[in-house]
Automatic annotation (TrEMBL):
Organism domain of life: Eukaryota
Similarity field: Belongs to the cation transport ATPase (P-type) (TC 3.A.3) family. Type IV subfamily.
Entry keyword annotation includes Chaperone: no
Start and end residues of each P-type ATPase C-terminal domain: 897-1147
GO BP annotations listed: phospholipid translocation
Cofactor: Mg(2+)
Protein residues bound to Mg(2+): 426, 428, 871, 875
Name under which the protein is recorded: Phospholipid-transporting ATPase
Domain P-type ATPase N-terminal as annotated: residue spans: 40-105
Membrane protein topology class: Multi-pass membrane protein
Length: 1192
């Protein structure tokens, strides 16, 4: 960019209103006090006083663990779970004589589970460490002792070091800007890594340090900075520079924050103020709010139920054990003499039966511990990580234009995606593209532009009575605004068609002088930067917002090309309306009063080549119309009418105005303004706002711009599908009511058959009170008005319900001012009740805080799962407040994505994320948890029945290692396969039948009825396995020589039945088989036999009851195999019968869809299922036809 020089006026003197800034208080007086005690010795870090301060180095670590604390800290994380604490206690107690099994058999499974989780944590932390190493070893130039800049690593920087940063490099620490490649010490900074905003920020050095332009001048530079202590506030900085015997107040304008990037500036010099973890970006590096899914919270309750069951059966067993023990030795007589009750230890002493019962209770707590699934947590974590990988790699959610796939930023909430009851969505950039196109304008009361917007087409259909079910497809309207001139080259940001003012024809219009001024305002009143392509010579613009870029491009296309910006001037190629020729004109830039949400306008003050002082202004209609001069309202009525029409068409409007300033007037104002700017009083900001307001008066209206923020592709179809899935959608937007409502119609959120309930505070009475300025009266009247409107809304809904069977749907529209009162404690419940009874809700003119408050209200009042979706920094509060936050990686930066749980590139991908992945994940996790509890109850209660059968002796039915490996090897892999791969229906059928999603919304698959049903099935299975096995084997001769089955054989047979039964139960429950499921299910059964052979061949001192038990005793006996078959079939029969009855007489939604699919396949209606692509279906029909021909 050219570096012009202006000695009289410097760009650093221009005042810039920041879009986000804190109120300026008299904080400089606090320097040296607590919180403002940091001292930096510039270019003198080796100063003895500096060394005594011992500030942190610039080394940064974002890891959760270090080599020293990994083991203790990770173990602490693991044992925060109740189940793990229980198993740890059992492991310790198992070293005592009370244990019914060997200690090592308990320790190894616990170590495997804890170790697997710790390895996962270590891998994740190692990845973070690699990123830290990369960042800490980046290179930067530091001013050394030899008075030259030398390269060093970021981590070696110290407070006070002088550094040089080049274009497109990141700042290595928080720096004080001394000077730059521009003479006035300005530079442009991209802060996307800090706040997600892609627009460039202007920073400028103090005038005192701007001349430091070379190494010789830096050699003599010595200064001291006294400033605030490290803090997380990105939008303020308080400090003082002591240099050359003078004090200079410092603000955020002089600060370059770590991880922001230098743009459009060749280089800057800066002094390191904050390093490492003291930098503002690291102070802000906190984890997002911890969110847990509802299923996970319910799972904790189930664990507590199982613990309660464990204590109950242990207590019952101990009571019976104590009673039986006491009876064994009474009056000198021994009932069970073979147990030698007269010569026994304390664990079985009839004389001390109460103590024996207590000790037995402890033994039973360990023995029945297999009711608690030790591998549940680690299995769920593994499954969720794998599910997240499938989400990340889904090609149907990959957006090729921006090369962005879907990204699950957390795996904790996968199943919540399948239970969404309410979606709260931003509009701009979320439903729309946030890619503005200049499409219409009104100049001097004349409307220009013939393009049709998507909203206008939807309105036309609504007026013509087109059925809403046949909504406009986004594919159909994709070319709607450009069809007037398809041969014309497409220009991003410009979709304007009107030959009256294009190609220079505006010079022939009646108000050509007004058109010239209008276009000149668009070309000058902005903060955009021109970027020239060196190869093609074409100019593009880097602007703070898409709107601003669209205005500059429109001005260029209509004859006013902005091509150069220096520190103090803006240059244009203008079309002169008198001569009709292009001329170059340079405007001297005096002041820039930037746009902010409170001012709602932007102005620049320039001096034209004719030495005229011009104030050029653009802003919201509410801000501009009240500032018009009496003689500047010539076209006001026509312009307001056009604004209303543009808002109805879904367009965003800005009013354009100007005025000519007198030299004396401007000098007097500038003097006051500079004085206000230099003041350090508490009212500094208010004073400058007031002065800016004074100069922005007596404006002359020129016209209004209208830009279209087009709907994203597929939005109407996506909203329709989500509505069919029973998901309610609310839109929370900062746009005008008319714009938001018409966007609502365009995207099918509002329908023709809906009756609208509008809550607004635009009544004449309230407007009159506002003009009087009586705050108490205004508040009282507003509350009364809102209460009345809510009551009227209720009456409309109640009348519609009573009136006819075809009840009308309602849409609620409320503006931001009304929403502020509706969210007060005495009104929020009634407002919510009204809103929840409406099919659609649109909140207009909403602030970021209101978005978060509405989200909290919905979440707390419904108690159901809410999802917020947005794309900008103003949506962060809403995303973090909702149960699930989905960020759209769009035009407004990555702030929303960084605060989200899931990130997608387009709103339409939400359909697949919820209806496919959400439904699958919810179903898989629900079934997985239910199955976990089923298999553990089945196994645990066989131990209980066996102990009851043996007078609660405390003897386990199985070998120690059988029990230890049950959850780790013989039943764990099939349940993981279920959680990762199972599908009740295919992705295409999930999308074809959105009503299937209601299974998750209604929580059918993880209701208490279903959970208790699975638990009962486990209890029933344990009864069948134990009693059928014992009654089949104990009375019968087991071997050829007539010997009956002993303890070892009975244990192996019963365990074999358990392994077969729970794995076959899995096979029955699975809907979608892959080779992986087959491998894991049948492989687990096969592994049991392999383990039995290998373990049984080990020395008897190690294998104990398992020694040769399969090879020599069980395998040769036909009874073993027959009993296994009989017991497994009988165990599976109840569930099989229940599912057969349910599928036939009370089918669930997925059962109905599966039956439809099977019927369509049987009837040769291959394409009826909609499951296969068209080409594949065609080939299948062709192959089937050929097979029939051969058969005939």
């Amino acid at each position: 960019m050219p570096r012009g020089r202006r000695r009289t006026i410097h760009f650093s003197k221009l005042y810039s209103f920041s879009c986000i800034r804190s109120s300026f208080e008299d904080v400089h007086a606090k320097i040296g006090d607590r919180g403002y005690s940091r001292v930096v010795y510039c270019n003198d870090p080796d100063n003895s006083e500096a060394l005594q301060l011992r500030y942190r180095g610039n080394y940064v670590s974002t890891t959760k663990y270090t080599a020293a604390n990994f083991i203790p800290k990770s173990l602490f994380e693991q044992f925060r779970r109740v189940a793990n604490i229980y198993f740890l206690v059992v492991a310790f107690v198992s070293f005592s004589p009370l244990a019914p099994f060997k200690a090592v058999s308990v320790l190894i499974p616990l170590l495997v589970v804890i170790g697997a989780t710790m390895v996962k944590e270590a891998i994740e932390d190692w990845r973070r460490r690699k990123q830290d190493v990369e960042a800490n070893n980046r290179k930067v130039k530091v001013y050394g002792r030899n008075h030259t800049f030398i390269g060093t690593r970021w981590k070696k920087l110290r407070v006070g070091d002088l550094v040089k940063v080049h274009k497109d490099e990141y700042f290595p620490a928080d720096l004080l800007l001394l000077s730059s490649s521009y003479e006035d010490g300005i530079c442009y900074v991209e802060t996307m890594n800090l706040d997600g905003e892609t627009n460039l920020k202007l920073k400028h050095a103090l005038e005192a340090t701007s001349p430091l332009q070379d190494e010789n001048s830096l050699e003599r530079f010595r200064a001291v900075i006294k400033c605030e202590d490290p803090n997380e506030n990105l939008y303020s900085f308080v400090g003082t520079l002591f240099y050359n015997g003078r004090e200079y107040p410092l603000s955020l304008q002089q600060m370059l924050l770590r991880d922001s990037k230098l743009k459009n500036t060749e280089y800057v010099y800066g002094v390191v103020v904050f390093t490492g973890h003291d930098t503002k970006v690291m102070e802000n590096a906190t984890d997002p709010p911890s969110k847990r899914s509802k299923i996970e919270r319910k799972m904790d309750k189930i664990i507590y139920i199982l613990f309660s069951t464990l204590f109950v059966i242990a207590f019952v067993g101990s009571v019976f054990f104590g009673i039986d023990t006491k009876k064994d030795y009474s009056g000198g007589k021994m009932r069970r003499w073979y147990l030698r009750p007269d010569d026994s230890a304390v664990y079985y002493d009839p004389k001390r039966a109460e103590i024996a019962a207590i000790l037995h209770f402890l033994t039973a707590l360990m023995l029945y511990g297999y009711l608690i699934p030790i591998s549940l947590y680690v299995s769920i974590e593994m499954v969720k990580v794998l599910q997240s990988i499938f989400i990340n790699r889904d090609q149907d959610m990959y957006y090729e234009e921006t090369d962005r796939p879907a990204h699950a930023r957390t795996s904790n909430l996968n199943e919540e995606l399948g239970q969404i009851d309410m979606i709260l969505s931003d509009k701009t950039g979320t439903l729309t593209c946030n890619s503005m196109e200049f499409i219409k304008c009104s100049i001097a009361g004349t409307a220009y532009g013939h393009g049709k917007t998507e909203v206008e087409m939807a309105l036309a259909n609504r007026r013509n009575g087109v059925a809403e079910t046949g909504h406009i497809s986004s594919d159909v309207v994709e070319h709607s605004t450009g069809e007037a001139d398809s041969s014309r080259k497409s220009i991003k940001g410009f979709n304007f068609r009107d030959e009256r003012i294009m190609n220079g024809h505006w010079v022939n219009e009646p108000h050509s002088d007004t058109i010239q001024k209008f276009l000149r305002v668009l070309a000058i009143c902005h903060t955009a930067i021109p970027v020239v392509d060196k190869e093609s010579g074409e100019i593009s613009y880097e602007a703070e917002s898409p709107d601003e870029a669209a205005f500059v491009i429109a001005a260029r296309e209509l004859g006013f090309e902005f091509f150069e910006r220096t520190q103090t001037s803006i240059s244009l190629h203008e079309l002169d309306y008198e001569t009709g020729e292009k001329v170059d004109r340079e405007y001297e830039l005096l002041q820039v009063l930037e746009f902010s949400s409170s001012r709602k306008r932007m102005s620049v003050i320039v001096k034209s080549p004719e030495n005229k002082l011009l104030l050029l202004c653009k802003g919201a209609d509410s801000a501009i119309f009240e500032r018009l001069a009496k003689d500047g309202r010539q076209f006001e009525d026509q312009t307001k009418e056009h604004i209303h029409k543009y808002a109805e068409a879904g367009l965003r409007t800005l009013v354009v105005a100007h005025r000519e300033l007198g030299l004396e007037e401007y000098k007097a104002w500038e003097q006051k303004f500079l004085k206000a700017k230099a003041s350090l009083t508490e009212g500094r900001d208010a004073l400058m706002d007031e002065l800016a307001d004074k100069i922005e008066r007596e404006l002359i209206l020129l016209g209004v711009t209208a830009v279209e923020d087009k709907l994203q592709k597929g939005v109407p179809e996506c909203i329709n599908k989500l509505a069919q899935a029973g998901i309610k959608i609310w839109v929370l937007t900062g746009d005008k009511m008319e714009t938001a409502v018409n966007i609502g119609y365009a995207c099918s959120l509002l329908r023709q058959d809906m009756k609208r309930i509008v809550i607004s505070l635009d009544s004449p009475d309230i407007i009159a009170l506002e003009k009087q300025g009586k705050k108490d009266a205004i508040q009282k009247a507003c509350l009364a008005s809102i209460r009345k409107q809510i009551e009227e809304g209720f009456s409309q809904i109640n009348e519609a319900k009573k009136g006819s069977s075809s009840t009308k749907a309602f849409g609620l529209i409320i503006d931001g001012k009304s929403l502020e009162y509706s969210l007060k404690k005495d009104l929020e419940k009634s407002f919510f009740e009204l809103a929840i009874n409406c099919a659609s809700v649109i909140c207009c003119r909403s602030t970021p805080k209101q978005k978060a408050l509405v989200t909290r209200l919905v979440k707390n009042e419904t108690g159901k799962t809410t999802l917020a979706v947005g794309d900008g920094a103003n949506d962060v509060g809403m995303l973090q407040e909702a149960d699930i936050g989905v960020g759209i990686s769009g035009v407004e930066g990555m702030q929303a994505v960084m605060a989200s749980d899931f990130a997608i590139a387009q709103f339409r991908f939400l359909e697949r994320l919820l209806l496919v992945h959400g439904h699958w994940c919810y179903r898989r996790i629900s079934m997985m948890i239910c199955y976990f509890f089923y298999k553990n109850i089945t196994f645990g209660f066989t131990l209980f029945w066996f102990e009851a059968h043996n007078s609660f002796s405390g003897l386990p039915a199985y070998n120690d290692w059988y029990m230890s490996f049950y959850n780790v090897f013989f039943t764990s892999l099939p349940v993981i396969a279920l959680g990762v791969f199972d599908q009740d229906v295919s992705a295409r059928l999930c999308l074809k039948y959105p009503s299937l999603y209601l299974e998750g919304v209604e929580n059918i698959l993880f209701s208490w009825t279903r959970i208790l049903g699975w638990m009962f099935n486990g209890l029933l299975s344990s009864i069948i396995i134990f009693f059928f096995t014992t009654n089949s084997m104990i009375p019968q001769p087991f071997q050829k020589d007539g010997q009956v089955a002993d303890y070892e054989v009975l244990g192996v047979t019963m365990y074999t039945c358990v392994v077969w039964a729970v794995n076959c139960q899995m096979a029955i429950s699975i809907n979608y088989f892959t080779w992986i499921q087959h491998l894991f299910i049948w492989g687990s059964v096969a592994f049991w036999y392999i383990f039995l052979v290998i373990y049984g061949s080990v020395s008897p001192s190690i294998s104990t009851t398992a020694y040769k038990v399969l090879v020599e005793e069980c395998a040769p006996s036909p009874l073993y195999w027959l009993v296994t078959l009989l017991v497994v079939v009988c165990t599976l029969l109840p569930y099989f019968s229940y599912r057969a009855f349910q599928t036939r007489f009370k089918p669930m939604r997925h059962d109905v869809i599966q039956q439809k699919r099977l019927l369509s396949c049987n009837n040769d209606q291959i394409d009826a299922s909609g499951e296969l692509p068209v080409r594949v279906r065609g080939k299948l029909r062709h192959l089937r036809h050929r097979l029939r021909e051969r058969e005939s």
